[in-house]
Request: fold
Amino acid sequence: MRRILIPALCLLLVGIMAMPILAADKKPKVAVVVKTLTGDVFQLKMAEAARDQAIQLGADATIYQAGGQTAVQRMVQIIEDLIVQQTDVIIISPLDSKAVVPVFRQAKEEGIIIVCMDQVAEGDDYVTFISTDNYAAAALGAEFAKTVLGGKGNVVVIEGAPGSSVGDDRKNGFAENIVKGSQIKVVASQTGLWTNEKAMDATQNILQANPNVDLIFSCSDGMTGGILEAVKLAGKEGKIKVISFDGSSFGIELIKSGSIIADVAQFPIKIGRMSAETGLGVYNKTIDPASLPKFIDSGTKLITSENADASLADAF
Amino acid sequence: MINRFTSVLKAKEAGIIAWILLVGLVSSILSPNFLTPNNLVNILAQSAVVGIMAIGMTMVIITGGGGIDLSAGSILGISSVVMAMTIIPPELFRDTAAMLVLPNDFWIILKALIFCLGTGAVCGFLNGCMITWAKLPPFIATLSLMAAARGTAAYISAGIPTYGMPTSLVYVGQGSISFIPIPVLVMLALGLIVHLALTRSVFGITLFAVGGNRETARFSGMNVNRLLISVYVLSGVFAAIAGVILSARGNQVHPDAGTGYELSAIGASVIGGTSMMGGAGGIPGAILGAIFMAEVQNVINILNIPVAYMKPVLGGLIVMAVLLDQWHKKRDTGE
Reply:
């Protein structure tokens, strides 16, 4: 029995594995590679938008996730597998700007078109990088904070995870611009590690050390819920103003309920769509990669109570 | 009186108490905002989640034979997702748009808590089965459940966090009785129960016997497998309770919640004097270990120490605390 069963199973397995190859047609193969879709609505919406847009443009598109905010090695493996599978276009949000450089080079040599979205890699093996200009966007938040505070006061920054270029850009964009031409002081800047609970603990501790905080800048909507809980527990609800970053529907609802005063919006769906269009455009030779800028700003917008309702329509 | 004082100094928790006081002393000198009643209460509240997990983790580590529960953080995540799914009406679940306002329906909340703790128990039972019946090393067994439970949590929640718990549940996480936060009371109550069970019951005797020498325990007629399974089930249940506290405190349920908390819990146990070799350790030390870690985090925030220094500082302090503790023990036993 076993003598027949094992070869039969092997044959079946080979058959299953060969099926996609036999069924394959001339559609371009697009791979969307992101850190994780778990608990990260931004990445989820961006990846889905890229995939859906690619499918609409007549490609085969699949999302691959590395499975964590720090799963660098897994992401490198995914790219290696995609090279073997002769993927045509890779749309990727690299976890680590350095670790992916060797596989990017390998992919480029195989003629694979790489588009970076949201986060960038070193080197120039990708055709372009499409993202929010995080520094400029955070500066927009800083300008609004200056007006609201009347040019003086104490502010706190709750940062993203250490080492994240996106988080650093937001922190610097806010902290460097808020002090320019004002008497505002950044009394504390601490990490919330992109998580609700760590942001809550950090805020709670900072408020103990600094009783006179006027405003908190949160580097992500994903941490703002925790920051608000900490402000509430400290009995400072309404006294401390909060500005957040992302412009998710959650953040906009918080503006409408008066919990935060502003949210700096970025557009993950737009980033995803633009990435798919650019990648397939280069593949179809309708876009000349030589003429593409290395960075494309997907735009940003400051959402306040004045435009909250209108912004909700195209929020993620 | 003097006798009692020296017995405190000789207790196995003396090392960790000294560390807590030392860090506290230095911090009070460096910042006037450290030694305030509010701040001390905050430190205790912030230690509760890791402290509750460390209670279960300590029992697991005491069983010896490489006993460890790497899945505790993932069990926290999946149990809180199950709790949220039971409380939140299906049409609102996965609604990221708003802070949900949910009714305080006693029966629904009770059902959610039962499902939550049940999930923890089932996960712990699976760990126990893999370790006793399939004879997998605890590291491998719990590592596989760590991945499986986190993946399942992500799958059933579609990877989306949910904001807003019923106010009665939030009270469990944020409220206080007189001035002591409820999470701290939960941690102390659970700690006391387990401490008594470990020091004054057959369960405790069996646990330390199995941890000391598994073969001897088996030959003495102890049911080693039953003990191992119950210890892993308890660790799962404590992780689920920690999940309830974490969700209630942050007013949010996140499928990635508790990522890496198993390592903090292991750290708290070890700093508190539990031996990774098994057979020795205790609950008071584990809770003090959790308080120590929360204290260090608090000091980093209060003194506004830059982010990049945070983890090395925490790592360095853990090593120093354990080294000092070992030195202390060696001196006491005259080795």
In short: Chain A has two domains: 27-132+268-299, 134-265.
